[in-house]
Design a protein that fits this description.
Number of strands: 8
Order of helices and strands: HEEHEEEHHEEE
CATH class: Alpha Beta
Oligomer: single chain
Strand content: 25-35%
Radius of gyration: 16 Å
Low-confidence stretches: 193-203
Mean pLDDT: 90
CATH architecture: Roll
CATH superfamily: Methylpurine-DNA glycosylase (MPG)
Number of helices: 4
Largest sheet: 8 strands, antiparallel
CATH topology: 3-methyladenine DNA Glycosylase, Chain A
Distance between the termini: 48 Å
Number of domains: 1
Shape: globular
Length: about 200
DNA sequence: TTTCTGATGGCCT
DNA sequence: GGCCATCAGAAAG
């Protein structure tokens, strides 16, 4: 993947990433997934973004050049992975929410023994990160470098007719922005739970 | 099948 | 000290 394709707009970058492959070296072997669900995040103008309140030690990668891995720890037990977008100095990233395994299924199942169906192996951002073995040490890795332990491989753009969009998952802020994108028909897209995302007020 | 809840830790105010 | 870009297993229908 060329870095320039991610450096323009986060929404364009998010759609561009659909169908592309992320490949990672793990102790069990190389694992590759085809991205089918992503979410775009921006900077000071995006209240749902980690970078909304400016640059910190954690979110520094979001402010760097496009094409680097932003890995963070959530809920005390999971990692999630983004790919940074936009030019150096401008905050932006695309969260990798779900993918389909393209590499050896036996290797993938060995890494995530609890997944009963292959479609569940990388369904959900923390599952995807777990399958690919992402941890703190991967934060900042250049995924456009063929020599990196994590590589982003370009694929022909997805047919626009197959791209769906909707509100981002699990974030209360900016619920009106349809900045989640997925490939229609994929079994690996994380399940949409109506009514759980939009707080309708309490009592 | 869908819905609910416990586990668990770092970041930011 | 509260809030999270979550998951897996259990419970209920």
């Amino acid at each position: 993947m060329d870095r320039d394709e991610l450096a323009g707009d986060v929404l364009v970058a998010a759609v561009r990433l659909l169908g592309c492959t992320v490949e990672a070296d793990t102790p069990e072997g190389t694992v590759a997934v085809r991205l089918v669900e992503v979410e775009a995040y921006r900077g000071a103008d995006d209240p749902a973004s980690h970078s909304f309140r400016g640059r910190t030690a954690r979110n520094g990668v979001m402010f760097g050049p496009a094409g680097h891995l932003y890995v963070y720890f959530v809920y005390g037990m999971h990692f999630c992975a983004n790919i940074s977008c936009l030019e150096d100095g401008e905050a932006g990233a695309v969260l990798l929410r779900a993918g389909e395994v393209e590499s050896d299924l036996a290797v993938a199942h060995a890494r995530r023994p609890t997944a009963r169906r292959s479609a569940d192996l990388a369904r959900g951002p923390a599952r995807l990160a777990s399958l690919l073995g992402f941890g703190r040490e991967h934060n900042g890795v250049d995924v456009t470098d063929p020599g990196s332990p994590v590589r982003l491989l370009a694929a022909p753009p997805i047919d626009p007719a197959l791209v769906r969009s909707g509100p981002r998952v699990g974030v209360a802020a900016a619920h009106d922005l349809p900045w989640r994108f997925w490939v229609a028909g994929s079994a690996a897209v994380s399940q949409y739970r109506p009514g759980r995302n939009a707080p309708v007020g309490r009592l």
